[in-house]
Amino acid sequence: MSVFSPLPLVIEPADLAERLLAPELILVDLSSAARYAQGHIAGAHWVDSKRTQLGQPPAPGLLPEQEQLEALFSELGHRQDAVYVVYDDEGGGWAGRFIWLLDVIGHPHYHYLNGGLQAWLGEGRAVTQEPTASAHSSVTLSLQDTPTATREYLLSRLGAADLAIWDARSPAEFSGEKVLAAKGGHIPGAVNFEWTAGMDAQRDLRIRSDLAQALADLGITPDKEVITHCQTHRRSGFTYLAAKALGYPRLKAYAGSWAEWGNHPDTPVER
Q1: Which of 7, 76, 182, 269 is deepest in the core (most CB within 10 A)?
Q2: CA–CA distances in Å: residue 79 to residues 26, 71, 75, 247
Q3: Is 230 among the residues known to form the active site?
């Protein structure tokens, strides 16, 4: 049994610190390149966040091609018994998106470092500037559809009583005041709860302890299917992660997000 087995999805710096030498650990840092070079947790592999996205217009947030994912996970030394611990320097956007990728490849063993690098540094823990070498294992992935909502699927579910659409963008984007696509506004029936509102700024960007109640007050509840999105499924990486940590059983990410929905001629929009 792994030394990580007793731990919940979201772990604290002390949990990771005492397991840094565990042979099953693959530690992934999705901070900026500059931040990684400045100092990162020992043994962490830096992953360029751009590699987690398809990166092509009009919807750059879609899933990368399978061969791109296989190359990425090969460099990380992916194996069936690996336990991933993922963090970033922004409170969980890119880290949450990486956890979504792990769900897509069907790998169940992972944890998120609560608060990421800020929480680690906030406790005065050591970092290193020594980069971690790539591993280059042989990887063949089988991709799962379940963690992802396509545009067509979301269209088919609009108006359902058991659906909650969690829009993680800013209120200005949600209202249509700020337009970052051909159309402004939001998906009909969506609820706006900006991603950073789910972080506790007083606790080094850890997930808010009262987040479940804040979401329930908005009608985002575990009895519903929750589909979350933003502009490119970076900010909604955090909201996907947060809902997963809260135990929401029916959860999907709309990876196309507003970049796809807002640029498509046939999608309905509310303002």
Answers
A1: 76
A2: 10, 13, 11, 26
A3: yes
The answer as to CATH 3.30.70.1520 being correct for domain 10-122 is no
Q: Domain coordinates of the chain in residue numbers? A: 10-122, 151-261
Supply the pTM of this predicted model.
0.97
Rg (CA), the chain: 18
* Phi, psi for residue 115 in degrees, rounded to 5: 85, -10
| Bridge partners (DSSP) listed for residue 73 | none
Strands (DSSP E) found in the chain: 10-11, 25-29, 45-46, 83-87, 110-113, 163-167, 191-192, 199-200, 206-207, 225-229, 251-253
- Which pLDDT tens digit goes with each residue over 153-204? 999 999 999 999 999 999 999 999 999 999 999 999 999 999 999 999 999 9
Residue 238 DSSP SS3: helix
Angle at which helix 235-245 crosses helix 93-104, to 10 degrees, equals: 70
> Burial letters for 141-159: b for 16+ Cβ neighbours within 10 Å, e otherwise?
beeeeebbbebeebeebee
Q: Which two structure tokens, joined as six digits, stand for 49? A: 């966040």
User: What does the block give as tokens for 70?
Assistant: 């296989």
CATH 3.40.250.10 is held by the domain 151-261: yes
Q: Do domains 10-122 and 151-261 have the same CATH topology?
A: yes
Which of 230, 243, 255, 259 is the catalytic position? 230
149, 252 Cβ separation under 8 angstroms: yes
